[in-house]
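Discussion board: Methods & Data

I've been asked by a reviewer to show the raw model output for two of the constructs in my manuscript, not just the figures. I'm not sure how much to include, so I'm pasting the format here to get opinions. Each protein appears as its amino acid sequence followed by a line of discrete structure tokens. Is this the kind of thing reviewers expect to see in a supplement, or should I convert it first? Here is construct A:
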Amino acid sequence: MDPFLQAAIDEAKLGLSEGGLPIGSVLVRGGQIIGRGHNRRVQHGDPMAHAEIDCLKNAGRQATYKDTVLYSTLMPCFLCTGAAVQFGVPKVVVGESITFPGGESKWGRSGDFMEAAGIEVVNLHDATCIQMMRDFIAANPKLWNEDIGV
């Protein structure tokens, strides 16, 4: 198991234990985690508190993101994709995209958008991430649909 994906999974589990969605993220530079976060939409009553946004916020101001890797347990939505593009994160590693293939629009999916912006997207198709989301969605369909804007 990739230790940084495991750290993102740990964040996702923390979010779930708080009554939120099990989506986690970490930001890595030089083999060290410099930021971590998880989806806190429910806990904070904040529609913008997605895992990747929480992670970037917790990393604080950075002079550059050009030497970082953003890990997420789930393919990012367009909000989080936009943050990665905006800050110039060169690589995004995702645990899975089976339960959520990313944001979709007339311009394609969020993963396509990141790649078009020059971001390397690596999908690990991780069984733990897939099962964690499948279990959550089955148990909480209304909350999941709220999170993805359905």
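Construct B, same format:
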Amino acid sequence: MAQSSSAIRNSKRDVAFKWEGRDRKGQKVTGRLVAANEQALRGELRRQGIAATRVRAQSQSGGGGKVNQGDIAIFSRQLATMLGAGIPLVQAFEIIGAGHEKPSMRKLLLEIKSDIEGGTSLHEALGKHPLHFDALYVNLTEAGEQAGALESLLDKIATYKEKTEAIKKKVKKALFYPAAVLAVALIVTMILLIFVIPQFETLFKGFGADLPAFTQMVIDLSKFVQAKGVYLAVVVGVGFYTFFYFKKRSRKLNIFLDRVMLKFPIIGPILNKAAIARFARTLSTMFSAGVPLVEALESVAGATGNIVYENAVMKMRDEVATGQRLQRSMENTGMFPNMVVQMIAVGEESGSLDTMSGKVASFYEEDVDNAVDSMSSLLEPLIMAILGVLVGSLVIAMYLPIFKLGAIV
């Protein structure tokens, strides 16, 4: 069955359609097109010699919601591959955009395509969407356009985005496990306190004897949760809202949180390694693209993903701008292991800073992978142990009066 991925010039009101029809030979064909309305779509299909038999508009709100950096990473690889295959830039955007499953991403790419068709350079068109294409992405694209090596630079960008997204996923996985342990433990405990413990309390009233201190403590806790549970939930909800509200707006709070997380047991070493991996990967990509070191360090700082490292790299940039060697400025921060500093020093001396920083990045990316996998293996039995202690303690508290009664009898 033939497929068509052509697209009509996009505007803010354009709609994506899925269509079925027959070509000049009477064969059934299907595809997706973006057009202002169904009439414009049918007109475009007629110009292609296709008689549409069914046209269906696609929802603009479905398909996964807003564009994320994972979508940008996949797009970067697709674009690099198509340009490497000799497909013109506008046509590559048309193919990728019209065939994308996510409406928001399709709209973004077709808007960029329209800008390029209007005479705008690629880096300028990307720069109009700073939420999706940061300064580093735009600067590398501009360097590729000016050097006449756009295909090569896009390939480097695609590799960079894939590596950094993989690291982000690993870090999120590392942070998710402890949060999951606490959440599951809290939910199970609340269920027992609200629904199970009161049933035992009714049973114990018929004993006519004092309850063990541990059992009475658990029953009192159950009564408190039942009576004040709604207020507790409101307080916790307001607390979370306030925390995230100030986290988005207070740089001092973020610096404090990032510094604390770097020193946190188990999680801290993983976050340190991830920041170093992003630092080295970004430095390698920028330097191999011919970006001057001082300018590259400014982009590297924002890509580390941690404000403590960001401040350290900005300090390094200032020192390098005054003539200091990169190796010495890294040592002055006290944030980088000796092995990293020495490999960067070798890269500076041999004129292969991009290669050596790339090796540092690969080493730490693999180290993060192994650390997260090891932590996951350790946390699985830890989850069971925590739940066992919580549930077991409540069960023991409820059965102590029964054991006591049995001993008296």
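Answer (T.O., handling editor elsewhere):
This is acceptable in a supplement if you add a one-line summary per construct. For B, something like: Strands lie at 2-4, 15-22, 28-35, 51-57.
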